[in-house]
Amino acid sequence: MKNEKVLPVLTLASAGIAAAAVWWLEVQLRGWDGLRWVGYFHLAVPVGVGLFIAWLSGFCQLTPLRKRVAYIVAVAGFAALGYPVVNWSLRWHFGGYIIWAPFEEWPLSSRLSLFSIFAVFPALPVAFFALSRFFGIRFTPAGLIAGLVVYGLAIPLAILVIRITGHRGAPDAIHTIKTGFCIPLLMVGMGLPLVFQKKEEIQQQPGHVG
């Protein structure tokens, strides 16, 4: 990895680890047992979003300043709109909503809601990258693929960490979220394509010639 890429990757990973630590601490303090953690708003969410946006502000490379500010505001809006969708999908998938009837008697909307996470989870980075592209950020194919791979491996690798460390809770998908262990890789996966964006496509300051 080139030297100029090391700092943004390290700071991005640090932001992800910090967000995961806040999430983990909050769950521990508010009670680990059961699904109680699914039912309340986590302060770690705005903390994590804030850390990611702070990182974007320093490394998105958009110019002029007004365009960078507009992009950051758009990303904040994207996060605000995306949170309730993700929260709803996770609660359905992990049992936050209970229907007292056999599955075959569930309404179609409830069945789709139960499995909505399989659409929502991959849609998040795709929508974020599309938003970034709209504002003029161009990704290298390698950077885009690397980001999607890291994002996709977040849950499996977090399951492995739970198994290796023996952290309480089963080594499964729900506990990767409950522990927050998946958060660093999710954040790195979202931000990695911006680290490797196409230099020749970055807008230059007014008056400069490419």
Task: Describe what this molecule looks like in 3D.
This protein has one domain (3-201). It has helices at residues 3-30, 44-59, 65-93, 108-114, 117-134, 141-165, 173-179, 183-195. The chain is built from eight helices and no strands. It starts with a helix and ends in a 15-residue tail after the last helix. The longest helix has 29 residues, at 65-93.
Q: What is the terminal-to-terminal distance?
A: 25 Å
Sheet with the most strands, sense and barrel status: none
Q: Estimate the helix proportion, in percent.
A: 55-70%
- Write down the overall geometry: globular
Query: Any idea how many domains?
Result: 1
Radius of gyration from the CA trace? 19 Å
Please give the count of helices: 8
DSSP strand content: under 5%
- Mean pLDDT comes to 88
- Classification by helices and strands: mainly alpha
Element string (H = helix, E = strand): HHHHHHHH
- For the secondary structure, the number of strands is 0
Low-confidence stretches: 200-210
